[in-house]
Design a protein that fits this description.
single chain; 155 residues; alpha/beta; Pectate Lyase C-like; 4-stranded parallel sheet; 3-stranded parallel sheet; 3 helices; 10 strands; glycosidase; cell wall; polygalacturonase activity; Polygalacturonase; signal
Length: 155
């Protein structure tokens, strides 16, 4: 094998490996319409990638590549046909303010999932600094909790 071909192969592997460490099929949110930049609501693309991966046996991975992705409240629901991996290399960002939550208590909710693995070194950015001033709980006993990321009934 020529040195040039080996270098190209190594470069291709270096580009692919950080994006998905899964041993199974990969479902990149961009392939379902997600747009990086932090201004477009990508909730539908994330949910479509999740539903397709969840219906796939084995060890599928939903991949969030580098970039900033605005995601409104959503539920990643199981049970799934295989063990799920969510590989986050980018930033999943909550919307500004509480208007998008319309009384919901969770921003991102993982429910009824067996074998969930979250990898990738990315970030779930709930925009805490903008929400903390809205938290009345330190001052009022009867307060509403702010939305969170929630894991419910999974193993």
């Amino acid at each position: 094998m020529s040195l040039r071909l080996a270098a190209l192969l190594l470069l291709a592997m270096a580009r692919w490996l950080p994006e998905a460490a899964s041993a199974g099929p990969v479902f990149n949110v961009r392939d379902f319409g997600a747009v990086a930049g932090g201004h477009t609501d990508n909730s539908k693309a994330f949910l479509m990638a999740w539903m397709k991966a969840c219906a796939t046996p084995g060890r599928p991975a939903v991949v969030v590549p580098k970039g900033e992705y605005l995601v409104h409240p959503l539920v990643f629901r199981g049970p799934c046909r295989g063990y799920m991996e969510l590989h986050v290399a980018g930033v999943i960002r909550a919307p500004d303010g509480l208007g998008a939550f319309r009384g919901l208590h969770e921003w991102i909710h993982f429910a009824s999932i067996d074998g969930l693995l979250v990898t990738g070194g990315g970030t779930f950015d709930g925009r805490g600094a903008t929400a903390w001033p809205l938290n009345e709980c330190p001052r009022k006993r009867d307060c509403k909790l702010l939305p969170t990321v929630k894991f419910l009934r999974f193993s």
